[in-house]
Specification:
The complex is a heterodimer.
Chain A (H helix, E strand, L loop, with lengths): L15 H6 L14 E7 L5 E7 L1 H5 L3 E6 L23 E2 L5 E7 L2 H9 L2 E6 L6 H4 L15 E9 L2 H7 L2 E9 L11 E8 L6 E8 L4 H12 L6 E4 L15 H13 L3 E4 L2 H7 L5 E10 L5 E11 L7 H10 L10 E8 L15 H17 L4 H6 L7 E2 L5 E2 L4 H11 L2 H4 L7 E11 L14 E7 L5 E5 L8 H13 L6 E5 L16 H28 L6 E4 L2 E4 L8 H15 L11 H8 L4 E3 H12 L2 E7 L21 E12 L6 E11 L6 H20 L5 E2 L2 E2 L4 H4 L9 E7 L18 H16 L5 E2 L3 H11 L32 H7 L17
Parallel strand pairs in A: 1-12, 8-31, 10-11, 14-15, 20-21, 27-30
Antiparallel strand pairs in A: 1-5, 2-4, 2-6, 3-5, 7-15, 8-13, 9-10, 9-12, 13-14, 16-17, 18-26, 19-20, 19-25, 22-23, 23-24, 26-27, 28-29
Chain B lengths: L1 H36 L12 E6 L2 E6 L6 H8 L18 E4 L2 E4 L12 E3 L13 H8 L9 H14 L5 H8 L10 H25 L1
Parallel strand pairs in B: 1-5
Antiparallel strand pairs in B: 1-2, 3-4, 3-5
Helix pairs in contact in B: 3-6
Classes of the chains: A alpha+beta, B alpha+beta.
């Protein structure tokens, strides 16, 4: 089946006009009658016991309707069943600066803010932990009492025989790499609107409806049910347009629960929108990661063994942490053929906002280390870096040493493509001074084969209903967050039904209407939801085909649905289906179009008079099917096959996926040796997405991933000082602007996966991880310094250049972070720092006595 | 590299412009307060709450608090939610609107300061019959927006750019767009959209010329 009519064509997003005209609605665009504004009071301490909270003055303020604290919703929750360590509002203790303490619902934002000032909280500060290595030494004042040494989770995996592997190696490389913390910084701040309906029988608080900027409406429904002690069927979660997620909205953010709790207390609709600063504190981004990596190789670059120790600075709550630390180890496999792997992972709690899932979840920082080390090995052994990668390719179909099944594998072609397009062979050795090329590869899962909450439930289900006038309505729980999930679903359905894309309407992510889907994370939507849509469309197609077969007096196998036509095989001698359908379209037009409208009589009645038909319009076939079968509906679901669900070892559930995407990249950079500034001229990125269902959307995803990787490589970094974020603004965080964004050439490689919908795999995350090492490798090629800590800021590059020349090293992260201001600045617009910043630190026990170990980023 | 330097400077200059704009706005707020405090003759309309705004070519009467920002008024009082609040502190540009045809961050403009001026929002960009502006159409066709949250702001900046410079170079486009942030696209497909809109426009103009002849 290669003659596609909708698949593989670049089509505009079905919601694009709504976005360019401003008509599309995001959560904060909604208002309800009598709606109140919620504002949240946050903790000024990184770690403190709450001795008491007095809300009486706030409650007495005119215009304040409700004030809620942790006691109003004490049930713990968390995205992972093993990590139910959060409460909506702090109960007994705060664990990071910005932890949620109380919420006020008032008639205006000003009154709510004023009321926050009137809440009196008495804290007893506790020693705080900011560095993961220091934190692991903790004996007392633990962040969570049930986590000794502040260790959220540690894993120690051995696959094959690493000792034997290292013994066989001709050369062993070993180094420490550090990737600093980054965050999603999606353009839309988190927002939730919660409303209770009154029960029509009793007049008490009844069903809850929540509109929220979430990637996971069904998990939100589940956690709301846990905290509010309501059945899930009494909670409706609606996801309007979402202004970007990147993983930051892939779990339950406190405000989503707080809005519901506050609405219940206020008996009125409550909307809470985070300020940009609060978004930074909500975080759940990519943790600061310390990677000790050791790779053994033969003289030809063939890897014999890898040993990797990873420490992640996870922040104050578990969040997705257990999964993150497992991904870091599991996805050492499935890119190259590595016979022996040792992995030790430590997820550590610290008194900072929780880290969670971010684009390329768990794999990005380890990939930076691994691909950098490959480059170092190539340099030492005087091999071409691209060749080192080629000799280590997998030979699929295969199962890796750590139990990952790989079927489709487009990495060899990705490498060939970027090497050719970038002119690697001709240009590599002739680069002018200060300019270099670097290559790196990466991969990512197309959805996790095992869901977070273990069950035998399908991961995605899609329902379809076709109306009498040929309108196709698709109900999917998949969450469109800008990645094109709705358009993908519509394309798949239109392709199977052979109808116009314009007929298909998608109703998505409304827990009352749409069947359950786990959500938009781990790049699972195209593969899983796409497969469910494919099956649902095939299900409904069966009925159309059988009815059409009766009308055309032929076998169902001979019914072809194509280009909005239904016809009998051989009705017209066309070379292919689309040509045949085109000819029929003309014939139809010549003798007048037949509409299958409701008002027209049943087709059955006219059938006898007309005699058997050769072909008909889509509407006519639909009306026939409804006449024969009744309402025309179909359903389909997808669960990953058992063969793809991975090994049985502890933690083996994370990493397996039905399919992996592959990416290879070449970066062309120049480095100014005077200023340490890096300019990226161009990045060639080849991505194996199985089959590009919508090439323009695939390009958008790949370019977006590479660009986000570029941000992490060059500029983006969350800078901490004693648990206080020093750059909680979009300009200070330095997400790249248009002037800093280079040309990115995307090359789509199609390996056609045997299990993906039409052969498709993921496209939205896999490319990110290769960008960071590609740039660092290019910097090495340009000026001969190896950057083992990201981002590669001018300070770090200058420092490395000076060290190389034997000059005194500029100490930057050793004692004090150079980018951190000497004095605390006023946090403009902040609610909880207003005039309180410096005084907090006088009280903070971690500030008293030695500073050692208390400065984030101090560990070396 | 000289061209890189000029880019960096231009971004900085842009930000300085924003800060200066913010200062002017704060000063206006100060004047309002001062005039009422000292019992001097108030600035015209300083104490008024019900004011008339010219938004998208229509006169709108609206109840405005003294320190209300234009973004707030548009979004929550006039129901024009196209301008988005991504930061509410003049960083991201998602709230960009045109005031007298010049782009401004509406989160950093007080509504009282735009009473005699012409405000154009994303809702006023398409033709009255709903036909998309050429740039809007190009953004749809070229996949110029993903999550779409920043798109209305970008659309206003692009409209201003093309109105003042119908055939900008790539560097000029990059410069102009640096007032707005996008987190999804890497800007790349947005440039393609702008280029497509320019090409379509030029083709259209040529066509008109041919037809006129």
């Amino acid at each position: 089946m290669t003659d596609f009519s909708v698949i593989g064509k670049s089509v505009a997003m079905i919601d694009a006009a709504g976005k360019t005209t401003g008509a599309g609605k995001y959560t904060d665009d909604f208002t309800l009658p009598g709606m109140l504004v919620g504002k949240i009071l946050h903790s000024p301490y990184p770690h403190a016991r709450i001795k008491c909270i007095d809300t009486s003055r706030a409650k007495a303020l005119q215009g304040v309707v409700a004030v809620v604290t942790g006691e109003d919703a004490p049930n713990p929750y968390g995205i992972l069943p093993v990590g139910h360590d959060e409460t909506a509002l702090a109960v007994g203790k705060v664990r990071y600066v910005g932890d949620h303490v109380a919420c006020v619902a008032a008639v205006t934002e000003e009154i709510a803010e004023e009321a926050l000032e009137l809440i009196d909280v008495e804290y007893e500060p506790l020693p705080a932990y900011f560095d993961p290595v220091e934190s692991m030494k903790a004996e007392t004042d633990l962040i969570h009492e049930n986590r000794p040494h502040n260790l959220e989770k540690d894993y120690h995996h051995v696959f094959g025989d690493p000792e034997k592997g290292f013994a066989e190696a001709d050369y062993v490389a070993e180094a420490r790499y550090i990737a600093n913390e980054v965050t999603h910084a999606a353009m839309e701040p988190h927002c939730t609107l919660a409303n209770f309906e009154l029960d029509p029988h009793t007049g008490k608080m009844g069903r809850l409806t929540v509109w929220s900027s979430t990637q996971v409406p069904y998990y939100l429904q589940h956690k709301l049910s846990l905290v509010l002690e309501m059945p899930m069927s009494q909670i409706r979660v609606i996801k309007p347009l979402v202004g970007g997620g990147f993983g930051g909205k892939s779990e339950i953010i406190p405000l989503e629960i707080i809005a519901a709790v506050t609405a219940r207390a206020a008996r009125a609709p409550v909307k809470i929108t985070y300020t940009r600063e609060e978004v930074f504190w909500a975080h759940r981004g990519r943790p600061r990661t310390i990677i000790d990596l050791k790779t053994g190789v033969k003289n030809d670059g063939r890897v014999t063994a890898v040993a990797c120790e990873v420490i992640q600075d996870g922040g104050a709550y578990c969040s997705y942490g257990v999964v993150t630390i497992l991904y870091s180890g599991a996805l050492l496999g499935a890119l190259y053929d590595i016979p022996h792997i040792r992995y030790d992972g430590y997820r550590v709690l610290t008194n900072k906002p929780a880290c969670g899932a971010m684009r390329g979840h768990g794999t990005v920082n380890v990939r930076f280390a691994f691909e950098s080390q490959m480059d170092e090995i190539a340099a030492t052994l005087k091999l071409d870096p691209a060749e080192v990668r080629r000799v280590n390719l997998l030979k699929p179909p295969t199962v890796t040493v750590n139990g990952l099944r790989v079927l489709s594998y487009g990495l060899p072609e990705c490498i060939d493509q970027v090497i050719t397009r970038s002119g690697w062979a001709e240009r590599k050795d002739k680069m002018p001074k200060g300019r270099g090329l670097g290559v790196a590869c990466s991969h990512y899962v197309s959805g996790a084969a095992n869901s977070i909450i273990r069950s035998d439930m399908p991961h995605s289900t899609v329902n379809i209903k076709i109306d009498r006038d040929g309108g196709v309505v698709v109900y999917t729980g998949a969450s469109e967050i800008g990645q094109g999930s709705d358009t993908m679903t519509a394309q798949v359905v239109a392709e199977v039904l052979g109808c116009d894309l314009a007929r298909v309407r998608v109703i998505a992510a409304d827990t009352d209407l749409t069947p359950i889907d786990l959500g938009s994370y781990s790049s699972r939507v195209t593969f899983m939801s796409g497969n469910a849509a494919l099956r649902a469309a095939q299900d409904v197609k069966k009925n159309i085909v059988s009815a059409a077969a009766k009308r055309m007096n032929c076998a169902p196998e001979d019914v072809i649905m194509h280009s909005d036509r239904v016809y009998k095989r051989g009705a017209v001698a066309g070379d292919n289906d689309s040509e045949a359908a085109e000819i029929l379209q003309d014939k139809e037009a010549a003798r007048g179009h037949v509409d299958g409208q409701i008002l027209r009589g049943s087709v059955l009645q006219t059938r006898k008079e007309e005699g058997p038909k050769e072909h008909m319009s889509f509407e006519e076939a639909v009306v026939s099917a409804i006449d024969f079968h009744g309402a025309l509906t179909g359903t389909g679901s997808y669960a990953p096959p058992t063969e793809a669900r991975g090994g049985k070892h502890k933690g083996g559930g994370v990493g397996p996926s039905p399919a992996y995407s592959y990416s290879a990249q070449v970066a062309d950079v120049s480095v100014d040796e005077e200023t340490g500034e890096v300019t990226v001229h161009k990045i060639w990125a080849a991505h194996d997405c199985g089959r590009a269902l919508n090439p323009v959307a695939v390009e958008g995803q790949v370019i977006g991933s590479v660009w986000m990787g570029l941000g992490q490589a060059l500029e983006e970094e969350m800078i901490w000082k004693d648990g206080l974020l020093m750059n909680p603004g979009l300009l200070e965080y330095r997400s790249p602007s248009s002037t800093e964004s280079p040309e990115i050439e995307c090359i789509i490689v199609e390996s056609v996966d045997p299990e993906g919908p039409f052969g498709a795999k993921e496209a939205g995350e896999g490319s990110l991880a290769a960008t960071i090492p590609a740039i660092s490798n290019a910097i090495y090629h340009a000026v001969g310094v190896r950057l083992r800590e990201s981002p590669f800021t001018p300070e770090r590059i200058l420092s490395a250049l000076r060290a190389k020349k034997g000059m005194k090293r500029i100490e930057m992260t050793e004692s004090v972070d150079p980018t951190a201001p000497v004095k605390f600045r006023e946090h403009g617009g902040s609610l909880w720092f207003r005039g309180k910043g410096p005084t907090r630190h006088a009280l903070d026990p971690s500030r008293q006595g030695s500073q050692a170990g208390s400065v984030a980023g101090g560990e070396r | 590299m000289p061209e890189e330097t000029s880019k960096a400077v231009s971004r900085r200059r842009f930000i300085m412009g924003v800060i200066a704009g913010g200062a002017a706005v704060s000063a206006a707020g100060y004047l309002f307060r001062a005039s009422t405090h000292h019992g001097n003759a108030p600035l015209i309309g300083a104490g008024e709450r019900l004011i008339t705004l010219n938004v998208n070519g229509r006169q709108r009467r609206v109840d405005v608090a003294r320190q209300e920002t234009l973004a707030w008024t548009l979004r929550y009082n006039l129901g024009l939610t196209g301008a988005k609040l991504g930061c509410d502190r003049g960083e991201c540009g998602a709230c960009t609107v045109l005031i007298d045809d010049v782009p401004h961050y509406s989160c950093s403009v007080l509504t009282h300061t735009v009473r005699s001026r012409k405000v154009t929002t994303i809702e006023g960009l398409a033709a009255a019959d709903g036909t998309l502006h050429p740039v809007q159409q190009a953004m749809v066709d070229q996949h110029g927006s993903q999550c779409g949250f920043c798109t209305p702001g970008f659309m206003m900046t692009i409209k201003w750019l093309l109105a003042n410079n119908p055939d900008p170079s790539e560097d000029e486009i990059r410069d102009a767009l640096s007032s707005n942030l996008c987190r999804c696209t890497g800007y790349s497909q947005m440039y393609q959209a702008i280029r497509a809109a320019i090409d379509a426009e030029q083709k259209g103009t040529k066509q008109e010329l041919v037809e006129a002849k």
